Amino acid sequence: MSLYTLARDGDMERLTDTAKNSDSAAVRRRAAEMLGDVGDPEDDRTVDVLIHLAREDDDDSVRAAAVDGLDELGGNGLERLIAKETGVDPNAADWAAVRAFAKVLGGASIPEYRMAAANALGRMGDEDAVGPLAKRLEDPDPRVRERACLALGRIGDPRVVSRLKARLDDDHPAVKSAAADALGTIASGEALAALLDLLDDENVSLRRLAASALGNASSAKPVPELAGALADEHDTVRRAAVFSIIELLANAPTKQSHAVRDAVVSELKDADDETVTGPLVEILEDATQARQRRNAVWFLGRVTSAEPPEHVLDALVDALDDDDKMTAQFAATSITNLEGLAVESTLIELVNDDDASVDARAKAAYALGDVGGDRAKETLDAITDSDVDKQVRKRAFASLSKLGGVRQ
Questions:
Q1: Rounded distance, CA 83 to CA 64, Å?
Q2: Which PANTHER family match (predicted)?
Q3: CA–CA distance, 57 with 256 (Å, rounded to integer)
Q4: What is the pLDDT at residue 78?
Q5: What is the pLDDT of residues 19-48, one digit of tens each?
Q6: DSSP per-residue letters across 285-337
Q7: Exposed, middle or buried: residue 127 (CB in 10 Å: 0-12, 13-18, 19+)?
Q8: Taking the complete model, does pTM exceed 0.90, yes or no?
């Protein structure tokens, strides 16, 4: 039975047995990770197995996974691990625990204990831990440096940005990634500026991380660089860049947003179609901020091929009924940029849908005036003689006039 199945079924007894007794280091490592994901911090057996692996396993990667598993699990597992060798009270008050863990972080000869202390301090989030963690950015063990970076990112203190920037040149990719992740979380101007250079890094994971983190900027300044990332050879980087561009434009001042949007459209058009439209549809469907949805729907109408994929058309048509009136209006105008029988058919179906809202049906009638043909004329002509809402009839009549179908 697979580890995934054991985790899915909550078979913690077999999962802990596998983590402790498997002959494969890769299996023990993955089992330790899963115990952190699905285990119960109140389950002593789970915690005891992870502590055992962190202290006694003969494989570095298993010990590291066990430390991280204890961190993910929560509770006082990390504290119990450190207490095994140091005597730190796992139930100490926060201020006392911070002081004790900082001492372990700086003085423990066993790297797993320094890793555990770094994780614990990051989870506690106390600013008093920033200094001791920053010193561990020079730790001889790269696993400790990695956890120190991540812990500093959790705390989010901008005073350590310069120290984290230095770790972007670390010889170990995991440390470099952790430093970039921390800088993206801190998201100060200096921190994000340091990530711009990573958009050209040879490591695709770092390029993706940088593209994603730059969406946290407080202005639209990174948009040109993100637009350049739309030409990246890896679609994960391109998708991250699209998400960040929308995030930045949603938060940019309106005047600046308009100028940047116009400049970015050509870059979006040059990128692979699905790489751009996929994230835009996701944003349109899932975003909670109206300005994000507005930008997504605006771009969809300008970067989608004339005959749109079905999922793009469906998303735009659904947006005709968006609670935000401007998003709904943008959806209508974006649809008018599209072509094809599918567009006309979908709009006709919506116009005739008695269960759809009046606003959505009216906007569909409006869009038919730009994309419709003979079938649209027949539909709109019938609506003008029906007893549908006045708003729908008015839009139908206006569209019929544009199509040259008004009866004399």
A1: 17
A2: DEOXYHYPUSINE HYDROXYLASE (PTHR12697:SF5), PBS LYASE HEAT-LIKE PROTEIN (PTHR12697)
A3: 56
A4: 84
A5: 999 999 999 999 999 999 999 999 999 999
A6: HH--SHHHHHHHHHHHHHHS-SS--HHHHHHHHHHTT-SSHHHHHHHHHHHTT
A7: exposed
A8: no
